[in-house]
Specification:
Layout: H1 3-20, H2 22-25, H3 29-32, E1 43-45, E2 53-59, H4 66-77, E3 81-82, E4 85-86, E5 95-96, H5 133-141, E6 147-149, H6 166-178, E7 186-188, H7 221-227, E8 231-233, E9 247-251, E10 257-261, E11 266-272, E12 278-284, H8 291-294, H9 297-306, E13 309-314, H10 327-341, E14 345-347, H11 350-362, E15 363-370, E16 375-383, E17 402-404, E18 411-415, E19 418-419, E20 425-428, E21 431-434, H12 451-464
Parallel strand pairs: 2-13, 2-14, 5-6, 6-7, 7-8, 8-10, 16-18
Antiparallel strand pairs: 1-17, 3-4, 9-10, 11-12, 15-16, 17-21, 18-19, 20-21
Helix pairs in contact: 5-12
This protein binds zinc ion (ZN).
Length: 465
Amino acid sequence: MGKKFVIITTVAGMLVSVLSGADLTSQSVFASQERVMQKQIVTQRKFPWPYQSMLAIESDADHTDLRKFNIIHEFLNTKSETMLGKGLGLDISDSFFLYNGSNEPEEIDYNGATVRNEMTMFKGTSNVPSVYAPILLYYIRHGWIDTFHSAGDFSRVDSNTTLFSRQLEVNAMNFLKKENEVSINVFTDHGNQSNVANFGSYIPFDHYMQGDNPHTRYYITDLLEHEGVRFVWSDHYDSQYIYNTMLYPITLRDGSEMWGFYRFTGTRKVVYEPRGGMIADWNTMWNPGYLWEQLTQTRLDELVKAHGYTVIATHLEGNANQFPLNTQTIEALVHLAHMQDHGLILVARTSRLLNYNLVQQGVRDHVVYDKKNGITNIDITNVVNPVDGNFIPTWQQLRGITFYVKDPDYAMITIRGVPVPAWDVTRSPQTIGLRWYSPDTTNWAVNVGTPLYFQLKSEMNAQLK
Ligand SMILES: [Zn+2]
């Protein structure tokens, strides 16, 4: 590293000193003119400073209509006054269905909407974009949606039948490509046995899942991998709340590999049968009516104490009430936002949490010390990834990666010798790291028929020509 860099870090160091008060003044650059800073011990911090843990709320799209979706995300993601209270400004995303191939009769909203009115990308199982397509594309682009929920809603009353075939997934992926849509990394399985494109679970009950079987007409995982899907939730109920890592490798039936991830769905309870047998049953919590139970003070405190990850499974838009979240759940979410404000839990959309988790557990570095200027350089060499192959990360992929050092003013981060842009390096009194994403509390909500809606629709149609 040349002289130029030293000057830049020195100025940055002085700024940090000014900003963080007396503590750092004693370690200022003036002291260094007399003695050169020693090589520093570098250890990785699990989460971006100051957070102690990380949490995602991963919502399934079942029974979602635009009304409930907008109410809920205005409350969760913005800081506006909303129907559910003052917005929380949290980074919570959602999932969506490509198709509606369901004939289930349920009402999904208080105004009488049924499963036929679910918000899907395409009209039924046709290749015609639905009235909601311009809005869904917009939400994907702005981070309110980051997950495929199965290949669509294909749940049939008779679960031995299905309207799904691979061609639908081909059409959908071509559509997303034409729209230059950002790649979607997360896929969650859903529903009854009509949803034949599900994949990733190999227990007898899940024999219906054929999405990774290249010998069937339901094979889609090659298309998903091409789209950028790297993480799958394979429909395993799970009562474990806290994980050291959310990821485990899955070998698919086409021979490729993908990361599976865990979700907290509820608690397991044992039910005693009248005739003496014992069966496992589930106290399922993945409806917004019970979201507060997944976010109790005790659970969140344990998460912080364990310095763990958690991914909460829910269906944010899963009930049909006029106010789609109840008071207890709203209070629990407000409390969660306070825990983030207090630096205890970083709330991140699922795709960000999983990508961070992957890089955090796989990042490798090499510490180089320059005794001329006393700078300890943390040089990132690569990310070990047993599923997709090791790779040299960009600084964007390293967002949030943080190291403990004694004096961050005398530390720097490079990737294979190339310095990370100065604005993306963040220092605290004892850490240096790559800046996490800036909060985005923009209200992205769109309604059908508004001027913005027509603009988005004509942009969408222009891409299809
Ligand atoms: Zn679902």
